[in-house]
Amino acid sequence: MGGEHDSPMGAEHGSDSPAERPIGIGDAPPNLIRLLKERRRRRLRELATDESWPRILAHRFTQFRRLDAADQAELFAHTRVLLDEKGFEGCGGFEMTDEARVLIAATASLLLLHRHTDYYPALRSILVYPDAYVVPVQFEAGGGMVVEEQVDHIGESWTTGSLILSWNDVLIGAAGRDRGCNVVLHEFSHQIDAETGETDGMPPIEDPELRERWKQVFEREYERLCELTSRRRRTFIDEYGASHPSEFFAVATEHFFMEPVVFAKRQPELYRVLAAFWQQDPAKWGIRMD
Ligand SMILES: [Zn+2]
After folding, report:
1. Residue 204, in any domain of the structure
2. How far is the CA of 31 from the centre of ligand 1 (A)?
3. Considering the domain boundaries, does residue 19 fall inside one?
4. How many domains would you assign to the chain?
């Protein structure tokens, strides 16, 4: 999967630099804040789409071309809200562009289609590096020794309000050039996972029946992936998913949207549970017109 992803459990982070909240509503009561926010979102969703967006997405994002017109319109509406509410910042020499903002926000919006959403409520800033970036990681080396190694990261999601992405890997994922991996879908699904208060691979599911089915299927499929990975067997779901249940959810979500037809054939039960949660059936999307 070309580099480590992240430490989604992290609550502290040195480079976390939250942007100011975009709505200047000061100390208004919570109900009024919610009302004003909802009104602003409704207006944003109703605005016309910038004419450059379909071109950018048709060019960069392989799955965008497979969405029907209604889903594309909903995707644009959510994209407008995300662009309004979240800060986008270039890091490590990356100059932020409209193309980067639109591609990232639209990919993140794919996870919001057909669902009731509060637009990644904990997230304030998306920090973008030009390519994989190096993070010092400490490892237990046995005998109480701790060693520090420099590890390449392509993305991170933090519960403290920021999400980090490598632009080069955003492009590779959007173009479908890395075996169904997509770092934007990965990191934003961690944000949704964390909405329950715990990043544990169990996103917020209101329907008790689906929650029960999710637990059973996810636990079984996660253990199966761990077992196959430990025996160095080839697996459809990327082996990085075996590192933690939260990674399993994030990686399975990437494959679900990026390789849906194969996924539905290879792991139909897991596919169906994900389809019920995401309220989408991407295996039935239209055929891509390349
Ligand atoms: Zn991850």
Report:
1. yes
2. 34
3. no
4. 1
